[in-house]
Records
---
Amino acid sequence: KQEVTQIPAALSVPEGENLVLNCSFTDSAIYNLQWFRQDPGKGLTSLLLIQSSQREQTSGRLNASLDKSSGRSTLYIAASQPGDSATYLCAVNSGGYQKVTFGTGTKLQVIP
Amino acid sequence: GAGVSQSPSNKVTEKGKDVELRCDPISGHTALYWYRQSLGQGLEFLIYFQGNSAPDKSGLPSDRFSAERTGGSVSTLTIQRTQQEDSAVYLCASSRDRGPYGYTFGSGTRLTVV
């Protein structure tokens, strides 16, 4: 059974800092991994999708990497802004709809 | 539509009442999913629709929960005789097909049972 862990559960940083969020998974046989952000009381917004054959994806100030062999993905946020404050979730697709496992998220607060 | 649309965004209901939650997926997305997110918890899979195939209802927590999808598009999640433990955010997502495609989520319906 795939297990997805996100550590830390919460993170507070001053504005302008670069930061890394971590996502670990136990079964390396995955189709893809997707990073989402969730604002309070809102749905999930997709940030980046990395297929199993890829090592990283970039979008603006965000860079996500994937290392299947070690069961890890990181989300790098450059020059953090208060608007980046949200909960960040990773979702691991191990083979179809029922095998998508979500982490419980890292709650990020960027202090002005 | 351009995104996944859910309604209502918020719903407060009395214990024992029935509620209906609606999801309108992205046009052309054949797969539709319902998830539940309780306070401080991860996402719990509820049900999955793929095209005209029979839905996978294995995640529904009790027989008070049901869902349908009409014409392969709009879906309705119905909770009968609501209980306080049903209070949660109900999220709908759609994707192009079953397989290695990403999900697009709606904004969710926050259900509060009082």
---
Amino acid sequence: DQQVKQNSPSLSVQEGRISILNCDYTNSMFDYFLWYKKYPAEGPTFLISISSIKDKNEDGRFTVFLNKSAKHLSLHIVPSQPGDSAVYFCAANTQGGSEKLVFGKGTKLTVNP
Amino acid sequence: DAGVIQSPRHEVTEMGQEVTLRCKPISGHDYLFWYRQTMMRGLELLIYFNNNVPIDDSGMPEDRFSAKMPNASFSTLKIQPSEPRDSAVYFCASSPNPGHRDTEAFFGQGTRLTVV
């Protein structure tokens, strides 16, 4: 049973436009969420995170939004750049609880010049 | 620090052979994770260690899989005997304290395993 779901396997956007990647979770005990970016032939790298005490966290062009009631989070990239083309993984865990990070299956983002 | 180092980067082996994947975590990190990535299941946690002790191996698919961490700077994931369905990319990651805010896991570059 997938506790973290990324229902869009792929997304294609034009350079300069907004990219929105979505993630849903089912475990209400999750209270810390992370986004990782993965380029081909490399390991995932941490991008941005958000705690459940917040509903928004921003870092430069990247913003993560959290809707706890809907068990939904999203990653916004504005403006999108060709170098953002990668697979984006959503992950979640429980702070102070299990050290397990549960990942979604990933969304492949392609930013076209 | 050079980051998490995995070897080999690529491994091609015949069904039935033993495969050993290796990982050197970032110095000072107390947690080490082994993940497997496949198209069907995404990134799955296989096992993780805290201070060299296996904490949770519930993700290990079968008895054919085993993992060890003999010291703070080295871990192995062994598959014996290997099967074609084990073909995947295996990632090792380490973290200072993954259960707390503002900490995250650092991943190695992965080992792409192909079992023919």
